[in-house]
Amino acid sequence: MSAVLFTGFPGFLGSSLLPRTLRREPDARAVALVQQRWLGRAREALNAIERDDPSIAGRTDLVVGDITTPGLGLDDAVRARLLDGPLEIFHLAAVYDLSVAPEIAWRVNVEGTRHVVDLARAAADGAGLRRLQYVSTCYVSGRYDGLFFEDDLEIGQRFANHYDHTKHEAERVVAKARDAGLPVTIYRPSVVVGDSVTGRTQKFDGPYYVLQLLLRQRGTALMPLPRGAARVAFNLVPSDFVVDGIAALAGYDGARGRTVALAQPDPPSVTRMCEAFAEQAGLRLRTVPMATGLAAFGIDHVPGVGRLFKVPSSTLEYLTHPTLYDTTATTTLLAEVGVRCPSFAEHVGPMVEFFRAHPDIGSAAMV
């Protein structure tokens, strides 16, 4: 029997992709690698998945482990079982906090990926690796000023935070293994927001900080934005597009060896994004020019400013992000499996409505 290993369960991607993968591979058994602190939550998530689809019940094992540990913290019996037959790996676990300490980001994102690749190599040398499905990010581009193509990686870019930098270094590890012959697909989502139809999401971060600032106002909403915001693209995609894209391409031979930019082909500008949020909320928008450096300093150092804006200073750099993402090859590839990225105009309404209806959801993400 073949096995499918998931890291990052029960996070959003893992919880979404695990049942779809089991349905795609009816003879496979899933193994979800879970940190001890998330084991209870993982059991709850798995119970919910199996209630929703009894046909896949009993085909998933929850295994305690840690990607930051050599060998992923797996005992010999579990490792032997994974390597006993064909193995597919979904490496989804990562630290997503833009303000994370550098040593934590490096340990999880880079060393964790290196340990997963080591297991993938062992599988390739044994009964066989079907494919390593690795979720990276578009922001391996750093702050490259220009058009960033799917196959770009090393182009002299600089990085504004440890998340982008360590995800870049982690992708280098995966790309090196791919170039040496390992079967790999790399997926690079841009900023992921709620479902395109329901708006549902597990957390409010990124552009939701902008949205909450607008929705705390009435009538005319003031929005401080950097100069040139009308010329800066903000690339955001709905979560169902990301899940649909990965799920479809994971079983598609044409995606093997490819890097896939799961980004919006026609992203709105920062100003247009704010205008659309205001329109959906019935507000008149008035933008106020403000240097991002000054705004970040105020949030971090001026008493009361951080509490007033409720926007982490680390997110402000994305309002001046200079990179544009080419999705030409990805759009063609996704069309072959029947997946299309909804336009921002199609999903902004559900995004705003879900945010307004669920003020209890926070910004914390699971590692």
Automatic annotation (TrEMBL):
It holds the Pfam family NAD_binding_4. Signal peptide: none annotated. This is SDR family oxidoreductase. PANTHER family: FATTY ACYL-COA REDUCTASE CG8306-RELATED, MALE STERILITY PROTEIN 2-RELATED. Residues 7-245 form the Thioester reductase (TE) domain. It comes from the Bacteria. It comes from Actinomycetospora endophytica.
